[in-house]
Specification:
The protein is mainly alpha-helical. Helices cover 63% and strands 0% of the residues. The chain has two domains: 207 residues, Terpene synthase, N-terminal domain (Glycosyltransferase); 226 residues, Farnesyl Diphosphate Synthase (Orthogonal Bundle), CATH 1.10.600.10.
Length: 479
């Protein structure tokens, strides 16, 4: 780029984004906050021991009750304290059910709930467990529609489906229709339609579930207390971290010159330089280089977009996606997020990510396509390069509505592929990504879903995610 003549330089058009809505909300962290965080940590210890005893109690013959407890622990956001105990229980229950050929004598609610939990943990429980809830035509029985709690459970389970499971495609469509017709009188139905559990940002969903659970007449008070205290403790921890990040002086943003992007680039470059130093001290000198190289890839792709814009060039959809998969930042965030993970001590996972395995490609498609669907018209008005929607319309002579329908199917298929990558393989390969890395990629796809399923929530946070951010990071739970 340094050898280009001035007249050849391509400049990305400036966007006029909404003003910052956060101010100094996350900057302060007081001594009182620190003391409260320590107080919470002490109170958590005996509660953890009580819940651990509940999970490991000898009388485990009642699988439905055990699975219900596991589900509550996970949805309340405290399962990270009991990962070994949960895996031990799930492995035992799954083996017992497999020995019975998964002949589950449960109602729809419990069947769907257990299906979802097993799939979330990588167990390939067969979708045939839902056959008994269908009629002769393979459709879900209409009599099921009166039980909204069961329909919500079915709806959530159906989003763990993979390719080749038409019964779950049918279950998803059936449950969606029922919930839409019930949304006026059911908060559970409204929330499920607003955000699929499996696709949601887990910390946000934990906060919502705490509110639901405390209204449950069968709630476990010890577990609820643990969840509330731990949520407040982690909230304070996040606020402490945010205050440290935001301490560079927010007023300096107002003093940025017109060529502020140079400063931004320099900041990013220097930050990754600091990462490199820290990673070298930890014995992982390669980690920051992989992440830093992905930033350089992003800059090159942005420059390609700028050249297309200057030349008024509309690429083919295939050409667009080669570039757009990188600007979707899945590789950057994935490589950056695993740098400091203690579980990742080798270079191999970094190499695997940049080779775009199936799970990364699925995440890239989800990110890029969902963003394009909700933001392409406004970006065109701002003078951006043609989005995937315009490219596809031009290639196939289709209307916007037709392309959006196709794009939604692409996102649905990408989620099926991502789900399948999480299933435990009978013949694992050395080329498989480690589970902690897979979780990071899944969580990135979840962020995308939460931000882009309705509008461009990243740009217009006040319209979509402001309340969730406030409740997650600043509004503590009343004990």
């Amino acid at each position: 780029m340094g050898c280009l003549q001035a007249q050849d330089l391509a400049i990305r058009p400036l966007a006029h984004f909404p003003p910052d809505i956060w101010g100094d909300r996350f900057v302060t962290f007081s001594t009182e906050d620190s003391l409260m965080m320590e107080k919470y940590a002490k109170e958590i210890e005996p509660l953890k021991e009580e819940v651990k005893t509940m999970l490991m109690i000898e009388n485990s013959a009642d699988f439905a009750k055990k699975m219900s407890l596991i589900d509550a622990v996970e949805r309340l956001g405290v399962s990270y304290y009991f990962e070994n105990e949960i895996e031990e229980q799930l492995s035992h229950i799954f083996k017992e059910l497999a020995a019975k050929n998964f002949d589950m004598e449960y109602d729809l609610y419990n069947t769907a709930s257990q299906f979802r939990i097993f799939r979330q943990h990588g167990y390939k429980i067969p979708c045939d467990v839902f056959i008994k809830f269908t009629n002769e035509d393979g459709k879900m029985k209409e009599t099921l529609s009166t039980n909204i709690r069961a329909i919500v459970s079915l709806y959530e389970a159906s989003h763990l489906r993979i390719h080749g499971e038409p019964i779950l495609d049918e279950a998803s469509a059936f449950a969606t229709d029922v919930l839409k017709s019930s949304a006026n009188f059911s908060e559970q139905a409204r929330h499920a339609l607003k955000q699929v559990l499996h696709f949601g940002i887990q910390r946000v969903e934990n906060r919502h579930f705490i509110s639901f659970y405390e209204q449950d007449e069968f709630r476990n008070e010890t577990l609820l207390r643990l969840a509330k205290i731990d949520f407040n403790r982690v909230q304070l921890l996040h606020r402490q971290e945010l205050s440290q990040i935001l301490k560079w002086d927010l007023s300096a943003m107002e003093k940025f010159p017109a060529d502020y992007m140079k400063l931004v680039f320099q900041f990013v470059y220097d930050t990754y330089g600091e990462f490199a130093k820290e990673m070298t001290e930890r014995g992982k000198p390669y980690a920051a280089k992989f992440a830093k190289d992905r930033v350089m890839d992003l800059i090159r792709c942005y420059y390609t977009e700028a050249k297309w814009y200057k030349a008024k060039y509309v690429p083919t959809f295939e050409e667009y996606m080669i570039n757009a998969r990188i600007t979707g930042v899945a590789q950057i965030i994935s490589t950056s997020s695993i740098m400091g993970m203690e579980e990742i001590a080798e270079e191999k996972p970094f190499q695997q990510i940049i080779q775009s395995p199936r799970v990364v490609r699925a995440c890239e498609i989800i990110g890029r396509i969902m963003d394009d669907i909700v933001s392409h018209e406004e970006e065109q008005a701002r003078g951006h390069v043609a989005s995937g929607v315009e490219c596809y319309m031009k290639d196939y002579n289709m209307s916007r509505e037709e392309v959006v329908q196709i794009f939604n199917k692409m996102v649905e298929d990408a989620w099926k592929e991502l789900n399948e990558e999480f299933l435990i393989k009978s013949n694992p390969s050395d080329d498989d990504l480690p589970k902690p890395v897979l979780k990071r990629i899944l969580n990135l796809a979840r962020v995308v879903d939460a931000l882009y399923k309705v509008i461009d929530g990243y740009t217009y946070s006040a319209k979509l995610i402001k309340d969730d951010i406030i409740s997650t990071y600043t509004r503590s739970i009343t004990l």
